[in-house]
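Input record (one chain):
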Amino acid sequence: MNLKPRVLALALAGGAATGAIVNSLSVRNGGPELSLPALIWVAALLIGGAVLYLASQVSKFSKRETRSQAGNMNALLAARIVVFAQALALTGALVMGWQLAILVFQLGLMSSRASTWPLAESAISMVAGLFMMVSGLIAVNMCRIPPGDDEDRGGTGLGEGLPQTGPLANRESK
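The corresponding structure, as predicted from the sequence alone:
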């Protein structure tokens, strides 16, 4: 399953609306501005890099020629990595939307502040959200099963020949 651009746009818009409302409520009631720290960039780099590495392993696993280079990859782990990549893309869209709302709020206060650091911090966090979203989308696309001779035999090639485990593995189909 692919993430549709509409879903990402909805997550971005939802993040922006929520960020604007919650930040406005916080500031009006004497609370802090609810911007994410610039340290999120480090987290985005680590998580985005990890999902891209894992997706490259799934990509190797999905091709017969490179399957031996994929380490301990299996079909279940590959499916989990795809879900992780999709979740990262959605989280990136939410963070980007939230930080966009905060950035607009910071721009409104630009003339009354001596420091531009809060504005820069919001911009850095917004770029971190963009990076998470893009790395998640790239990873999802890397995890696609290539068309080929596996489809001609009615299988995907992923998980074939692997023992079935779990409570339903020994149950006969009725």
